[in-house]
């Protein structure tokens, strides 16, 4: 299923580029846009994870310098029958985590220093089980490419805005019409990017929570971690946080800001709903014992 989502994202990116390129530059613009879209798709498939990790200054670690963290990930990957992913620590006091990569054989999990400080071992295991569930379900490629797609759409929106301003200054009737269309695109394209992120993010968070619950056998570990993470995200914003990659994190790095904007453009389900579902799963698992 995730392969189809990824293909859909790539095709969507290409069509948006071609449509805007054609509107700005006709057939020549369409050709340039096609080449740009093809290049962006290829680049994002192979390097989107590297870009996201670099943005957050993630530092690779291994068993020698992060023994406890490595041990938890190793234990979970064996239980989940997954290859061992690369492990990164982000030098950031706000607790959060994400997974990235194009498939389970090329996966990475990243946690912030703040997460390691405020969570106990069981809670860290719950968070890592959540991220490895994303790896298991192939969510990570879709999420990584969505981040690149959102950035590309934002770039197109800026082009459209410049084109609209130039059209207005042109003064002709056709120029004025073009300006209106271009400015409309500048407004609508970022909204389209947000809708794409929401479509792939909300449901997959519930799936990853459920996967973590069954992988650890203790849904209450992740529920406890989410309570702490939500408290911090509503008080602090991560350094280098970007709207394009916010959907990749276990909790939204713009927690308090997103709540003020309302649920319409929220890339994550509410933490209270996630905790309620984990509590239901806890009772389900206990009944099955």
From TrEMBL:
Q: How does it sit in the membrane?
A: Multi-pass membrane protein
Organism superkingdom: Bacteria
> Where would you find the membrane-spanning parts of this chain?
7-24, 30-47, 140-160, 180-200
What EC class is this?
hydrolase
Which residues of this UniProt protein bind Zn(2+)? Answer: 130, 134, 205
E.C. code = 3.4.24.-
Active-site feature positions: 131
All residue ranges annotated as the Peptidase M48 domain in the record: 68-281
Q: Which cofactor does it need?
A: Zn(2+)
Report the Pfam families cross-referenced here.
Answer: Peptidase_M48 (PF01435)
The record's Gene Ontology cellular component field reads: plasma membrane
What the record says about family reads: Belongs to the peptidase M48B family.
The record's section on NCBIfam families has: PRK03001.1
Q: What is this protein called?
A: Protease HtpX homolog
Name of the gene encoding the protein in the UniProt record:
htpX
